[in-house]
Amino acid sequence: MKKLSIKDVIEFKRKSEQSKKTFVNNLKLDKKKVEAEAGGDYWVISTSAISNVYRSNDLQIIKDKIDEVEEKIESTENVQVKAMYQKNINILKSFENFDFKKWYPSKKMNLIKTKKANSLLTIKGLEVQALPHHVFTYKKNDIEEIGAIWFIAKINGYKKDELGMFADMLYKYLKVNFSKDYLINPKYCIAVDIVKIQDINYSQIQKVEIPELLTPTLDEIKKLL
Predict the structure, then answer these.
(1) Dihedral sign for Cα atoms in the order 155, 151, 133, 119
(2) Cα 42 to Cα 51: distance, rounded to the nearest angstrom
């Protein structure tokens, strides 16, 4: 059976009852799915540039990337590729003057390296993948705290409760991999929809401002296996 991404879980939740059964049957067969958004990572241009700005706090990266991709648009005749480039540029332009500091827990934080081998978590007997762009540590009242941020893109974006699944997964990821050494701050388990420019953090789920959908949806998938 294939590993699940949070995008897979959201896709399942959006389906009709009959389509959910087909979806799960394909999971059992480990059937390779062709991405509807032109294959591969359609949004890597914008997500990687925004991730780099978060790392360096240098907005010039976005301006340079826009210039670079505009040149690529001029050099290709492929209409689909042009459209992909343009959609990524549109996202980047919306972040040209964005204040990334709102997502920083402290002026002094350390980005730590993560191992891809630790990205797979077993939840409800299912393998679910977490791929944060950054995991960071910082001190608060002499206590070492940890958080993570995940930049996500999809055509038309996600609903807030769907985005909450990414934040929930970040918290679970940190709990499994880092809770022995750090205090997890739910406020800084941040999922960012870069299409809609909205963010959700895990503390909003704890406060029931956003419904907790990840575990119930995984329960539903499990029942159909």
Answers:
(1) negative
(2) 15
CA dist 53 and 113 (Å) reads 17
Burial profile 153-175: b = 16 or more Cβ within 10 angstroms, e = fewer? bbeebbebebbbbbbbbbbbbbe
**pLDDT tens, residue by residue, 55-99:** 999 999 999 999 999 999 999 999 999 999 999 999 999 999 999
What is the DSSP annotation of 92-138? HHHTTT--GGGG-S-SSEEEE---GGGGEEEETTEEEE---SEEEEE
Pairing of strands 183-193, 143-152: parallel
Strand partners for 121: 128
Q: How many CA atoms lie within 13 A of 191 on its CB side?
A: 29
pTM: 0.93
In the chain, the N- to C-terminal Cα span, in Å, equals 10
State pLDDT tens for residues 37-59: 333 489 999 999 999 999 999 99
Enumerate the β-bridge partners of residue 190: 149, 201
